[in-house]
Amino acid sequence: MNSIQANRSGLFRGLLFSLALLAVIALPALAQDAGFGSISGTVTDPKHSVVAGATITLIHTDTGIKRELTTTSAGSYSASFLKPGHYEILVAAPGFAKVDRKDMTVFVGQIVTIDVELPVASAQDTVTITADAPLIDT
């Protein structure tokens, strides 16, 4: 075998080894999403400004499993590795009325986008204090 054939053979073996190594590394990463779905979105107010720090509660209604998230400074949230099935999404933030989205379905490999607009809290959404305040004697 001459030196050119030996170099090609070594190059070919190196390429095969690199491809095999890449497959071993990449397949587990791809398999992590297998069998799961995701829900993501953005929470805004009625003027379409983002709402940072809103609490998102995802409830897998088939199993009762809950996951709680908080929106980022950009008003976004993302929940990955969710079991397929039916979900209820509760969104709450101070100064806003709660929003409850029911019957959301997540399928395997699906990324569901659920953007939520929070309405401003009304008088019915505020806390009412029923105990009498103590009198101040002046």
Structural classification: alpha/beta
Kindly, what is the distance between the CA atoms of the first and last residues, rounded to a whole number of angstroms?
109 Å
Work out the radius of gyration. Answer: 26 Å
Question: What does the average pLDDT come to?
Answer: 79
Q: Quick recap of the structure?
A:
The protein is of the alpha/beta class. The protein is built from one helix and eight strands. The chain has one helix at residues 3-31, and strands at 37-44, 55-60, 65-70, 76-82, 85-92, 99-106, 111-113, 116-117.
Task: Provide an overview of this structure.
This protein is an alpha/beta fold and 138 residues long. The protein folds into two domains: 1-31; 37-119, Sandwich (Immunoglobulin-like), CATH 2.60.40. Helices cover 21% and strands 35% of the residues. It contains one helix and eight strands; from the N terminus they run H-E-E-E-E-E-E-E-E. It has one helix at 3-31; strands spanning 37-44, 55-60, 65-70, 76-82, 85-92, 99-106, 111-113, 116-117. Strands 1, 4, 7 and 8 form a four-stranded mixed β-sheet that branches. The protein has a four-stranded antiparallel β-sheet with strand order 3-2-5-6, with no helix packed on it. Strand 2 and strand 3 (65-70) form a beta hairpin. The longest helix has 29 residues, at 3-31. It is elongated. 12% of the residues are buried.
